[in-house]
Amino acid sequence: MQTKKIMICDDDRGILEMLELFLDMEGFNVICESNSTNLTKQLISHQPDLLLLDLWMPIISGDQLIKMIRSTPEIKDTPIIVLSASVDGPEIASGLGANGFIAKPFDLVDITQKIDTILKN
Description:
Protein name: DNA-binding response OmpR family regulator
Domain Response regulatory: 5-119
Keywords: DNA-binding, Phosphoprotein
Helix content: 40-55%
Strand order of the largest sheet: 2-1-3-4-5
GO molecular function, one term: DNA binding
InterPro entries: Bact_response_regulator, CheY-like_superfamily, Sig_transdc_resp-reg_receiver
């Protein structure tokens, strides 16, 4: 079985490093991006199986990024799980066409289950 590639985009370095370490231990190939302006380029070049995306980031916010991703032919079908501490997060995520939502602070078991569920489809 081929290793699944997961890209994480979050402006919080601590969250990025913790998720990278955890998902790497779970057997995923992890690509991290902290600068939201590079994300669409990185998605096109790496073609990950799944994107974990923070909603509130400087420069280009997660909601704007989802709109850009969904309108870019090469990456429009990339599954996206939104990570956010926002109380409106689940509505925002589903309204934009994200495949899932995880509230911050998150439970690592919850993240693994959501990822596994989406990647099995």
